[in-house]
Amino acid sequence: QVQLVESGGGSVQPGGSLRLSCAATGVTLFKSCVGWFRQAPGKEREGLAYIRTDGATTYYANSVKGRFTISQDKFKNTLYLQMDSLKIEDTAMYHCAQSATRGQGTLVTVSS
Question: What's the pLDDT score for residue 27?
Fold first, then answer.
C-alpha cells in the first residue's frame, strides 16, 4: 500500500522555522518528481516546491523562494521541507505528493 506521511508541523511565531518531513511506504520516492503543496482555508491549493529525479533540480513558488528549501534522503525514503522566516500567511495544511499520491498533511500555524 502506497502511503505518504507528513510530520513536523506545529505552531510558530513569525520569523520562526519548521522542518517538515514526508516519509513514504510502499513506493520509492524520487523515481518521479516529488514535492510539497499547501492549502489554507478558503484559498486555492498552492504548489510550493518540487525536486526532480536527479535530486538536484528544484523549483520553488515565488511566495516561498529564498525562505523554503526542499531536500531528500534517498536512504530514508523521506522528503523534507525546511521553512525559515515564516510568515502569518504561511499558515496552512502542508502536503507532500508524488504523482497522484498525497499525504494527509501536517498543519502549520504561524501567529504572534
Answer: 83
DSSP per-residue codes, the chain: --EEEEE--EEE-TT--EEEEEEEESS-TTSS-EEEEEE-TTS--EEEEEE-TTSS-EEE-TTTTTTEEEEEETTTTEEEEEE-S--GGG-EEEEEEETTEE---EEEEE--
pLDDT in tens, 33-55: 899 999 998 999 999 999 998 88
Digit-coded pLDDT (tens) for 49-108: 999 988 889 999 999 999 999 999 989 999 999 999 999 999 999 999 998 899 999 999
- C-alpha cell of residue 25: 511506504
Amino acid at position 83, single letter: M
> What's the residue count for the chain?
112
